[in-house]
Design goal:
single chain, mainly alpha, de novo design (two linked rop proteins), three-stranded antiparallel β-sheet, 7 helices, Gap junction epsilon-1 protein, cell membrane, Connexin, Connexin_CCC, Connexin_N
Length: about 200
């Protein structure tokens, strides 16, 4: 791929053709990633080390932590961010290969329809991620986790485990749910902006 294609692709990703799309990129690319990368590591970075059960043995702690966290929240949210970026990246790659200028995307119906489809696909992926987050993490992190250790052939099948910094994790969970809701609202608003531009209610940028 030539440098011109790469430049067009990067400009398209960083500067979408709509005002709301540009704000979404700013919100998604900076605030959300900063929150996850910096604060997420601070909250979840040492969780496995401080997760302790009764009895406080390494094999029990490790077994119960894997049961408590089938996937770590940082990995889940990082995958969510990458997957949600894919539809827009495909569209801007297509636009770069076809030498489509950003200002022309909303002028031709086929380009506009393709772009709206990519935004709609982002909405679907965000909603699916929202549902998966509920199934995996719920809305609250309890201080005590009851772990089934029957597979370890222990005397008692259920043991109590202490979850470190459970209140901070609950706040972080709510924040990530909020970010997902905000990005979905921005995507819906972007489709509305495109429709208004196509109908002539809004002037081109």
């Amino acid at each position: 791929m030539s440098p011109n294609y790469i430049r067009s692709f990067s400009e398209g990703c960083l500067r979408p053709p709509t005002v709301i799309g540009q704000f979404h990129t700013l919100f998604f690319g900076s605030i959300r990633m900063f929150f996850l990368g910096v604060l997420g590591f601070a909250v979840y970075g040492n969780e496995a080390l401080h997760f302790s059960c009764d009895p406080d043995k390494r094999e029990v702690n490790l077994f119960c932590y894997n049961q408590f966290r089938p996937i770590t929240p940082q990995v889940f949210w990082a995958l969510q961010l990458v997957i949600v970026l894919v539809p827009g990246a495909f569209f801007h790659l297509y636009a770069a290969c076809k030498s489509i200028k950003q200002e022309d995307i909303l002028q031709k119906s086929s380009y506009t329809g393709f772009y709206i489809f990519s935004v709609f696909l982002r909405i679907v992926l965000e909603v699916v991620a929202f549902w998966l987050q509920i199934q995996l993490f719920g809305f609250k992190v309890n201080a005590i986790y009851m772990c089934d250790v029957g597979a370890l052939e222990k005397k008692f099948n259920i043991t109590r485990c202490m979850v470190p910094e459970h209140f901070e994790k609950t706040i972080f969970l709510i924040a990530m749910y909020t970010f997902t809701v905000i990005t979905v609202i921005l995507c819906v608003a972007e489709i509305f902006e495109i429709s208004c531009r196509r109908l002539g209610f809004l002037k081109p940028q």
